[in-house]
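Readers of this paper often ask what the protein records in our data store actually look like. An entry from our holdings is shown next, in its original layout:
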Amino acid sequence: MSAPATEAVELAPGRTFPDLDLPDHTGRARKLSEIAGGDPVALLFSRGWWCPKEQRYMRELIGLQDEFEVAYARIVVVSVDPSEVQSAFRAGLGARFLFLSDAERRWLPRLGLEETADTVHDPYWPAGFTLFPDLTIYRAYEGYWYFGRATMEELRTDMRHISRSVREDWAP
């Protein structure tokens, strides 16, 4: 996997999200574009398994996974937790969606999503992005104060808008 440059990218609607290359919860190298596979993506950055706010939010996402699967959409969570920790957290939640590990913090500075208040874990700022299949950002969510995170209904609405715009067979 290549080491990304350290200059932060602009993560705003209409911009293309970088094609992250990180190991998943099994340790397998993955690219965000490969994971999207032509489908919309809810890309969520997590502080880590140890945060009660993240545990609560992840439990909410579990309720969406069935809908996302049948609607051809993806949920991807990125944290600085090592793959083996993510694997255990994922299993404990009953999640089937992917977790990507940036334990080496290769992408953290480039994305400009460092949470500077936590000097113990050096985690991601809890942000979220809904992406078109080509990784163009539809919406960005700022979730440091829990209610800034995308609600499950906002994720559904974003996926509906994105799907409507990319699925040629949306309407009869």
